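Sequence only, no structure available. Ideas?
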Amino acid sequence: MRNRTGHALTGFAFLLALLALTACSPENPAPDNPVPAGDWRLPEGYYEPAKMPMVLVHPRPEAPGWAYARNAYPGLRWEIPIVVQGGAWPFRYEIADDGGAEGLEIGGEMTRIREGGWILRRPTPEYGTLWWDDPKPGSYDLKLRVTDQEGSTLDLAFTLTVGTEGWVFVDAERGSDATGDGSLERPFASLQPLHGDPSPYAHQRVVLAGVVPMNGNQTNGNLRIADDLAPRIYVGWPGREAVLEAFEGKINVDSPDFYLANLEFRDRSDYAPDTGSYLHMITVWDDTRRFTMHRVHVSRFQGVPHNVGYGNSGVIMFTNNGGQRYHVAMVGNTFSGPGGIVSSIYALRESVFERNVVRDAELNIADGSVWGLFYFKRDNEYVSVRANEIWQNNTWNIGQSPLAMDQSRLIEFAYNVLRAPWSSGRHGALKLFTATEASGYAWTAATPVWIYRNSLRQRVSWEGSRIANAADGFLRIKRNALHEGSFEGHRTVVLEGNLEGAPLLDERMRLTGSYRTDYLGRVGAEIAAPAPE
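Reply:
I predicted one. Tokens follow.
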């Protein structure tokens, strides 16, 4: 296994690195006492056993040959997230066989930091990421392995092709739509040449640099990703600033294998429509398997407050159109600046939301009909929502919670750090359930919901009857730290090993005082274990 060390990050990549370091901020600077890698496994009692089997979300073996995970351009840094749903987290990632790809690296383990008699584990930006700084032309058969805390393993093998075919470059600063051909040497200046019916670039991978206007291919300004109308892969140019900026319209994803990574995505500052209906930056429709967002910074969403009364307005909408959507991966993204909710989420299967951060955000929610910034609504199953952070310097106008769930099952909320204001009319850090029953969708002892090892401040809010048709004990709440609040008992709820009340957590959302001495690494989101003697 080869871990990344000493790699310099510049510009926007450096900002992402700062945002991604767990619990490191201006208020909580990164510690200067890292310790060498040792036994990555945690002692029993310092991790939570797996709730669901390990399932590979990204990269998928059935993805087409033009997918980003299967292709790199010679000499340009390439990276992809390795995403696994279920399992006993945190994982260890290994390169079992690099196939001759000299210089290929993986973020295998969390950083280990000594604090008194403890070793704390924290994910780096590269944790769970496979990358190659200087890809060499050729074809490489790669084999990777992911191991969880219980020793379960998941192996994946795929071929990485490094070549110049199937790539199109867009450089808003140095390119030209008139004289460019989309090559590295002669890039386009905008997305406009990529449109068509069909698009000649539909199965190519788009590399962006500069502030690129999100030219739509529809009369309403929307960029529709469907059939062969437009490319499905958009990534930032390594070593360059890359911004995809919408003046009007949104991205309508209506095809599998959409990939957005390593760039900033925003609405223009003068884009503030009042459409009289829901507004999103991305709408994800049916037949959209293998949707991936990785290291995207969403810095400005202008959908609210103009769309008052339309609470589903948000950055991303995973629609409810009667079918299931498999293998969604949202990993390592940052949401800041003016905005509304992050996402309303329907009908996911085998999907992961991991290490996303909402910070320095002005959360101007349109109305109170949507409960959470990440709102897992009906018909979500086999979903892992882990290690997300929503606590630093956010402003809220009304009562949304960071996370909310309504009529989903076989879903886990784990190791999240969530802080939200609470008062009359506000929901607090986590909001659960509704009185509404779902026709043909039962909650049984075999289809539970798990909420464990989260650090929450303040309050947990309940709605209605905790789902009247649910089985006894199907909701399992374990080893959470809830500052200023309590978990209510109910026949559908199992409570085990939680800490409640105040003062549990300090301003950095870490266990404090005697709670830190007695419960660090066993309750709440911090991953830690006693240091060896």
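The two ends are 27 Å apart (CA to CA).
Hope that gets you unstuck.
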